[in-house]
Model the fold of this input.
Amino acid sequence: MTDDQIREAVREILKANTHHGYSEEFQTPYCYIQPSTSTYPFQYFWDTCMHVFILTALEEHELAKENMRSLFVMQDEDGFVGHMLHWSRVRPAKWTDIFQSRPTRKLFRPHMSALIQPPLVAQTVQRIFAGTQDREFLDEMLPKLKRYFDWLAKHRDIDGDGLISIITPFESGMDWKPTFDQVVGFKRGVANRRLFWRVVGTDARNFFHRYDIETLARKRYFLVKEVGFNTIYSQNLTALGQLCEEVGDPDAVRYTEMADRVTRSMIDLMYDREETAFYDVDAGTGEKIRVLTPTIFFPLVIRGLPESITAALIDRHNSRKDEFDTEYPIPSVAKNDPSFNPHESEYLWRGPTWIFYNWFIYQCLFYQGFHDEAKMLEDTMRRLIQQSGFREYYNPFTGEGYGAENFTWSGLVVDMLNLKEST
Ligand code: GLC
Done:
């Protein structure tokens, strides 16, 4: 496939999965893209952001704006936005979704879930603005973004160190990521029903505590400072600061300082110098969770990370062949980890290759000037798509496609192509 053929195929998938409608409840038109027509029926928070990265890469700015506007329609007064937005379909897709809902009587009307997802939203508005210079759109979105990030800082920086704690594995967006096993009390190994009940039990407990964050923070059942989430948080606080600067809003300084604080705390609390890795931290015990997943490299994307850490991480990335080196990298957990399973499974993010991880690490390598290494990831993506189409995830040894078909965010490959062309 040529680059242009890839672009057209991605455009087609996104268009085919687009829903337009009118919400009587909120008296507004809405628009969102389903990640896959077979499995995921709602508007999801970070999926919407991925869609905007893809749409802006395809110059589909108007559609990108509609998606962003819809994401904030249900925003609470205090700034919260849930990770699943139920527009036309209000009933849950899986029974376990019930525990992710807010316990209100509004469940049979359009509503949001009680969870958060990684906050890529300031970068996406920035992307749209960069592509359109639409100041009206920026003026419309900026107050919403500010309220959203202020909510995160107020309610989820539980220990006052600047880092966000998530309260269930699903808030990471990497649902069954093996780091969380020990926090939910699952003995390290390949996932099974026991893990399922442990994780669903975490959601159920949150639900029965009515998602009251003060209670959850006090009880510390499941509180994790996750590297992916916090890297994205820091990046997006920076983006928010830049957006404020663009319009002359003095809060620019505050958000930039918050971003720096997050990065500093990540270095202090998550970075392990001996093992050269950023590890998730169990906020219950303050301990690092030493499981190797691609997020150990994520902070490489942060500009201004100390040179010594950057160099060490890159070196590690390129040298430890026993961990992430497979025919179709990057596996979602190191291949020598006891939880690793390269095959299709309902327990996502525990072995197979996800285009999201490759997109993220691609940016890290690219920004650090490692273009050859980045090129290898691009080749992997090409081979995966050529061989198996746009699937949700892939076998890291054989490239076999698994999970949802015509999965939208595997289209992030178009953003990688653009990044390559920008140099
Ligand atoms: C899976 C993914 C999650 C995503 C959702 C919808 O649960 O792990 O990140 O938001 O599907 O695509």
The chain has a mean pLDDT of 95. Residues 54 and 60 are 9 Å apart (CA to CA).
